[in-house]
Write a structure and sequence with these properties.
- With 242 residues, this protein is of the alpha/beta class.
- The chain has a single domain, classed as Alpha-Beta Barrel (TIM Barrel).
- Strands 1, 2, 3, 4, 5, 6, 7 and 8 form an 8-stranded mixed β-sheet that branches.
- α4 packs parallel to α5 and α5 packs across α7.
- The longest helix is centred in the C-terminal third of the chain and has 14 residues.
- The chain is globular.
- Bound molecules: zinc ion (2 copies).
- The site of one zinc ion has 4 residues, from loops.
Length: 242
């Protein structure tokens, strides 16, 4: 890396709305403020996740102020990829209200498939204009043709996420995550380093992700949340501001 990597924002965080997470948005924002972050995205799980919830959580997010505890809080969602054709579980009506959309595959939601099937799904997501960030795609259950898909994420302006939570709860993903990062480096695909926090103290914690990125000498200029300037350049492409 060419300079010190210290992420300035955390664009994948959960609140108590995701019932297996344990902090409120205000606690999350306060934790981000204490750690000197400029922004977080509040990205709770979408409605096919097996937990109670209501779409009003997402459709009413306009009541949230853009800054909480002095931290910019983006209205977001982590949507589930449901099918091998790339179908998402969330309506366009909800997605259009979001500032940032993460698309992820979860074991409990989507049936695993062949490499060809998962490749087809991710290629469809790459072409989906509602999706901004590709969530934790190193999961071995959902292995795909990385060489084919990763450059396509880049061509379509998607951010590939390096997910710190993966190192806590999906340690079997590590080698795939490294491979994904190496391909992003090779093809000049932008990434974002996120905590996937389910408890406020995890916000802004990226130690294992950063160690891996350092080890492969990942170019810091491809990490959109590695400086205010890079983050603002990315947000500009989404007509968003800090
Ligand atoms: Zn997830
Ligand atoms: Zn998540």
């Amino acid at each position: 890396m060419t300079d010190i990597l210290r992420p300035v924002a955390d664009l994948h965080t959960h609140t108590i709305y995701s019932t297996h997470a344990y902090s409120t948005v205000t606690e999350n924002a306060a934790a981000a403020a204490r750690k000197g972050l400029l922004a977080i995205a509040m990205t709770d799980h979408s409605l096919s996740t097996p937990e109670p919830g209501h779409h009003w959580h997402f459709t009413n997010m306009r009541v949230l102020p853009p800054y909480i505890e002095g931290v910019r809080v983006f209205r977001g969602i982590e949507v589930n990829v449901l099918q091998h054709d790339g179908t998402l579980d969330t309506s366009a009506e909800i997605l259009e209200k979001m500032e940032l959309v993460i698309a992820s595959m979860h074991n409990t939601i989507m049936t695993p498939g062949t490499i060809e099937e998962i490749t087809t799904a991710w290629l469809a997501i790459a072409a989906n204009p509602h999706v901004d960030i590709i969530g934790h795609c190193g999961t071995p259950t959902f292995a795909f043709n990385y060489e084919r898909v990763i450059p396509e994420f880049g061509r379509q302006g998607k951010l590939v996420e390096i997910n710190e939570g993966t190192f806590r709860v999906r340690s079997d993903s590590f080698e795939n995550c490294r491979r994904v990062a190496l391909l992003c480096k090779q093809h000049g695909v932008h990434i974002v380093v996120n905590s996937d926090s389910h408890y406020h103290d995890h916000i802004g914690q990226y130690d294992k992700s950063i160690a891996m990125l350092r080890e492969i000498e990942f170019p810091v200029e491809l990490i959109v949340n590695s400086s205010r300037q890079r983050l603002e350049e990315y947000l500009n492409t989404k007509h968003l501001t800090l």
